């Protein structure tokens, strides 16, 4: 079993809920950089299958950042009017040769091109925390990681750095030629 997928490889992304049930599957995402610590990948108009079997297709190119130590992942969506980020509070990723996998913990941070942001789905988080009995330690880890993510936004760190998304999108385009 490889520790991580290799550059240029097309992989699936599987998102689960805390109870172990599948939440969402992205059919085709290209790995741009794979290390044991992080994976940077990209997709454009990929099929997404929801837990209930419904499917939809992503609307724009996206650069995806997954980390093995942080409890969030970051999707930079490239739109006409700038880069929008969708950040999922989640378990660190695992790679098992079938797919890149993580547990989605409901809380999301949406970041706008001007770097303003909004925390989403707090009500869904609280409901699932009760229904699925998230341990207190998970609750603390997630709340700490919301703070860490917001500090990354303020500091323009990682995927929020000014050229990060553009640089990786150029690499994605070079593979697609």
UniProtKB/TrEMBL annotation:
<feature type="binding site">
    <location>
        <position position="124"/>
    </location>
    <ligand>
        <name>Mg(2+) 2</name>
    </ligand>
</feature>
<feature type="binding site">
    <location>
        <position position="108"/>
    </location>
    <ligand>
        <name>Mg(2+) 1</name>
    </ligand>
</feature>
<dbReference type="GO" id="GO:0017110">
    <property type="term" value="F:nucleoside diphosphate phosphatase activity"/>
</dbReference>
<dbReference type="InterPro" id="IPR035930">
    <property type="entry name" value="FomD-like_sf"/>
</dbReference>
<keyword id="KW-0479">Metal-binding</keyword>
<dbReference type="GO" id="GO:0017111">
    <property type="term" value="F:ribonucleoside triphosphate phosphatase activity"/>
</dbReference>
<keyword id="KW-0460">Magnesium</keyword>
<dbReference type="InterPro" id="IPR016882">
    <property type="entry name" value="SA1684"/>
</dbReference>
<protein>
    <recommendedName>
        <fullName>Nucleoside triphosphate/diphosphate phosphatase</fullName>
        <ecNumber>3.6.1.15</ecNumber>
        <ecNumber>3.6.1.6</ecNumber>
    </recommendedName>
</protein>
<dbReference type="InterPro" id="IPR050212">
    <property type="entry name" value="Ntdp-like"/>
</dbReference>
<keyword id="KW-0378">Hydrolase</keyword>
<comment type="similarity">
    <text>Belongs to the Ntdp family.</text>
</comment>
<dbReference type="InterPro" id="IPR007295">
    <property type="entry name" value="DUF402"/>
</dbReference>
<feature type="binding site">
    <location>
        <position position="121"/>
    </location>
    <ligand>
        <name>Mg(2+) 2</name>
    </ligand>
</feature>
<feature type="domain" description="DUF402">
    <location>
        <begin position="20"/>
        <end position="157"/>
    </location>
</feature>
<feature type="binding site">
    <location>
        <position position="106"/>
    </location>
    <ligand>
        <name>Mg(2+) 2</name>
    </ligand>
</feature>
<feature type="binding site">
    <location>
        <position position="104"/>
    </location>
    <ligand>
        <name>Mg(2+) 1</name>
    </ligand>
</feature>
<comment type="function">
    <text>Has nucleoside phosphatase activity towards nucleoside triphosphates and nucleoside diphosphates.</text>
</comment>
<feature type="active site" description="Proton donor">
    <location>
        <position position="24"/>
    </location>
</feature>
<feature type="binding site">
    <location>
        <position position="108"/>
    </location>
    <ligand>
        <name>Mg(2+) 2</name>
    </ligand>
</feature>
<dbReference type="GO" id="GO:0000287">
    <property type="term" value="F:magnesium ion binding"/>
</dbReference>
<dbReference type="Pfam" id="PF04167">
    <property type="entry name" value="DUF402"/>
</dbReference>
<feature type="binding site">
    <location>
        <position position="88"/>
    </location>
    <ligand>
        <name>Mg(2+) 1</name>
    </ligand>
</feature>
